[in-house]
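Can you give me the bound-state structure? Components:
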Amino acid sequence: MATANKNLSQYDKNTIPNAKNFRFGIVVSEWNESITENLCKGAIDALLENGVSEENIVKWDVPGSFELIYGSKRMIDTQNVDAVIAIGSVIQGETKHFDFVCEAVSQGIKDLNVQTDIPVVFCVLTDNTLQQAIDRSGGKHGNKGTEAGIVAIKMAYLRSVTS
Ligand SMILES: Nc1c(NC[C@H](O)[C@H](O)[C@H](O)CO)[nH]c(=O)[nH]c1=O
Ligand SMILES: CC(=O)[C@@H](O)COP(=O)(O)O
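Here's the bound-state model for the whole set.
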């Protein structure tokens, strides 16, 4: 199902585990900051709405989406978190750099999920245009940050009941 056929902000609150004892790291890319800060707000709001305490949310900024990999690894290694949300916005420019950044970040975050015990949520928009990014960070298609916050809670819970 494409994003255009669902709203990224909608979820059934009755299906979300209580997250009051979980601690979350959020790593945010500064590239396309107007987009990533909206994604971050969506994620934080979702966490708070489902019982997470403000003191259990650690937020760090990194220069770009490529740096989300290192930032997420350092978050895992130093902050005793139950899940990490990696937030970025990559928008196609004139060159193939978009392809390399998107591939590297998706592979790097996948690797963290395989190589560490902490789930890392891929909240990285990879859009052809700024409007597509706006539409998915609080616009007509909802907020992918909200979706990421809910995913982080569900994965932290899965980790807690399978440890
Ligand atoms: N063009 C975008 C970038 N590019 C920067 C890279 O992410 C990285 O910071 C640089 O290559 C140095 O390592 N980053 C984004 O997040 N979004 C873009 O649209
Ligand atoms: C994703 C990028 O790195 C890209 O936005 C940079 O733009 P350009 O390809 O025009 O250098």
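A couple of observations. The chain is about 45% helix and 20% strand. Strands lie at 24-29, 57-62, 83-91, 120-127, 137-139, 142-143.
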